[in-house]
Amino acid sequence: MTTTPALAAYERLAPVYDDFTAGYDHDAWVDALARIARSHGANGPRALDVACGTGKSFAPLIERGWDVWACDLSPAMVERARSCGGVAPDRVLVADMRRLPKLGAFALVTCLDDAVNYLLTLDDLIAAFASVARLLAPDGVYVFDTNTLATYRAGFAAGTTFERPLAGAVWHGETREPIAPGALCAAAIELGGADGTVSRHVQRHHAEPTIRRALTSAGLTCRAVLGQSTGGVLHEDPDEDLHTKLVYVAARAD
Asked: CA geometry: angle at 145 spanning 140 and 151, to 5°?
């Protein structure tokens, strides 16, 4: 597999990822997203979690009776996700979200924790969305999130630093240019240790019109856009300058 910036970043971050994200309430958040998907017509038990990381984003689905498959670009993350209870290890795959394998049809596809922002071009966005479209059941629902301008300005700007003591990691923003819509942003996570390992994260802000255009090009339609604030609280009036994420709900255009 060709090494990409995202792959390199998560191969290095995998050993401490669960500690780094220990404060995230995935259970309540994913539960809310799954209920929203049901309200938009997701009908059936099968769910696919794309960019699943160590399994935190699909564990709540398993607990609620979903028949889960999952994938991630990083073999190191997949190795940890395969140890999650309630999922067969052979259902957690190494896969690029732009080229998902044929796994049948799913009532729900999720792609959470700003994974979409690691797609740096419009072509990459369209390829990833088209890959999901091929796996959605006729009444299936696709739920994903993106980081907002507020998040990039607060966390990726040069000079921004914060620590994750549990993981022994320090986050450093690196983006020196003004962060405008569509900006390319970067941050480095110093993981410590004798070898001074650094996990470097390069993302692009995707404005809502860009996401909608990519969805349409991939044969999907946007059903809803929600704002999300700290703690996974969802809002019906999304605001790039106020909320930390936008959450998109999409379905097949036909």
From this structure: 175
Q: How far is CA 117 from CA 65, 114, 121, 185, in A?
A: 29, 5, 10, 10
Q: Domains for the chain: give ranges and CATH numbers.
A: 5-146+206-252 (3.40.50.150), 151-202 (no CATH)
Summarised one tens digit per residue, pLDDT across range 189-246 is 999 765 679 999 999 999 999 999 999 999 999 999 999 999 999 999 999 999 999 9
The whole-number pLDDT of residue 193 equals 62
Express the helix, strand and coil content of the chain in percent, nearest 5 each.
30, 30, 35
Q: Are 156 and 171 in contact (CB under 8 A)?
A: no
Instruction: Provide the CA 225 distance to its chain's centre, in angstroms.
Output: 15
Q: Which residues contact 103 (CB under 8 A, 6 or more apart)?
A: 48, 69, 135
Tokens, residue 209: 């019109």
Q: Is 196 exposed, middle or buried (0-12, 13-18, 19+ CB in 10 A)?
A: exposed
